Each structure stands twice: as structure tokens, then as C-alpha cells.
Amino acid sequence: MAHAARQTNFRLTPVSREELRAIYAITRECFDVPYTVETLADYLNRAGTGFIVARTEGGIVGFAVATATPFPLSLVRRVGEIALIGVLPSHQRQGLGQTLLSASFGHLRGRGMREVRLHVSVDNVGAIALYKRNGMRVAHVVRRYYRNRHDAFRMVGRL
Ligand SMILES: CC(C)(COP(=O)(O)OP(=O)(O)OC[C@H]1O[C@@H](n2cnc3c(N)ncnc32)[C@H](O)[C@@H]1OP(=O)(O)O)[C@@H](O)C(=O)NCCC(=O)NCCS
């Protein structure tokens, strides 16, 4: 089950378009293949998407993007996706990833989603551990899923 967050001096809020550069900076620190500001803006504009950030007094330290199938397709397809989740290395292992993931699941449930899925690099031990402790399991391997041609696990879980 989910552990309580150990870092308490942060709050979760939606992100504004003006803050996408800060999120972009986090992706540069978190991901081997960073995303573009345009990709982040696309998520922000997409119906059914929850774009959540964790803030401290010093600024944004983590974020998550959860996409729900938009209405009316959601009447027949209730699968949400964790598109992105990242916490600055300086703030990792303090419960923020767990908190962001729980909030993302909450967003998807609120949109009527029943299942969640995501892709994660097969060697991303930390993220895989986080997802497994939240009830997700590996469905299969997707070969050369990433732009750098690394393989991914597709993971699935019930909401
Ligand atoms: C994956 C990520 C979001 C986790 O964020 P985090 O704030 O460090 O996670 P938490 O502190 O909430 O960890 C919760 C639990 O997840 C597991 N976990 C997280 N990171 C782990 C690691 N590096 N190794 C092993 N287990 C880990 C542990 O069970 C941990 O609980 P514990 O600290 O009590 O042992 C963060 O490591 C990150 O941003 N990584 C780079 C970007 C990335 O890989 N994103 C996912 C792409 S699919």
C-alpha cells in the first residue's frame, strides 16, 4: 500500500502555462530523453489530462501528467495513463513520487477510469518498484519503445 509522504513542506497544485519552462527543466534532470516544452503544452491543453506539480517554497520540485480517455470515448474505454512523472533528484526518496502517483490515480478515478497503464524503461528499477507497490504489474515488454531505442515495460493496474 501507499506510504504517507515523508516530506511535508510541499503542496500539490495544477500547473500554469507560464510554468512549463520550469517543468521542462525538471525533465532535463530526470529523463535520459527529455521532453520539449511543446510536448508539455500539448498535455496541458488535452482534455481529460491532470497536470499536477509538487511545490516547495523554492519552486516546483516534481510533477505528474495523467491522461484520461476523454468523453464520449470514456463511456466505452476507461483506461487512463500515467504519461509522465518526475521528481528532482535532490528531492527523491522523500515520498513525493508516491504522493504524485496517488494524486494522478485520484484524477483518473475522478474521470471514471477503471484501469491505469504506463510505460517505463526496463532498467528503471526505482520507478518500477514505485509502480509495483501501487498494485501495478508488468503486462509485456515493448521493444525499442523509446527514442533512444531502449525497451520499455508496459505496466497495468486497476484503479
Ligand atoms: C520514479 C520517481 C518519480 C520516484 O520518485 P520519488 O519521489 O523518489 O519516490 P518516493 O520517494 O515516493 O518513493 C516511494 C517508493 O518507491 C520505491 N522507490 C522509489 N525510488 C526507488 C529507487 N531508486 N530504488 C528502489 N525503490 C524506489 C520505494 O518503494 C519507495 O519507498 P521507500 O523510499 O519507502 O523505500 C523518481 O525516482 C524520478 O523522478 N525518477 C526519474 C524520472 C523517472 O524515471 N520517471 C518515471 C518514468 S516511467
Notes on the protein architecture:
The chain has helices at 20-30, 37-45, 96-110, 125-132; strands at 11-14, 49-56, 59-67, 79-87, 115-121, 137-142, 152-158. The protein is an alpha+beta fold. It has a domain at 11-116: Aminopeptidase (3-Layer(aba) Sandwich), CATH 3.40.630.30. The protein is globular and about 40 Å long. Residues 3, 30-31, 85-87, 92-98, 120, 124-127, 129-130, 133 line the site of coenzyme A.
Write the layout of secondary structure elements.
Elements: E1 11-14, H1 20-30, H2 37-45, E2 49-56, E3 59-67, E4 79-87, H3 96-110, E5 115-121, H4 125-132, E6 137-142, E7 152-158
Parallel strand pairs: 4-5
Antiparallel strand pairs: 1-2, 2-3, 3-4, 5-7, 6-7
The structure holds coenzyme A.
* C-alpha end-to-end distance: 13 Å
In CATH, the architecture of the domain at 11-116 is: 3-Layer(aba) Sandwich
Structural class: alpha+beta
Rg, please?
A: 15 Å
- For the biggest β-sheet, the strand order reads 1-2-3-4-5-7-6
The outline comes out as globular
- Roughly what is the average pLDDT, rounded to an integer? 91
User: Count the helices. How many?
Assistant: 4
Count the E strands: 7
Brief characterization of the structure:
The chain is α+β, with helices and mostly antiparallel strands and 159 residues long. Helices cover 27% and strands 31% of the residues. It starts with 10 loop residues before the first strand and ends with a strand.
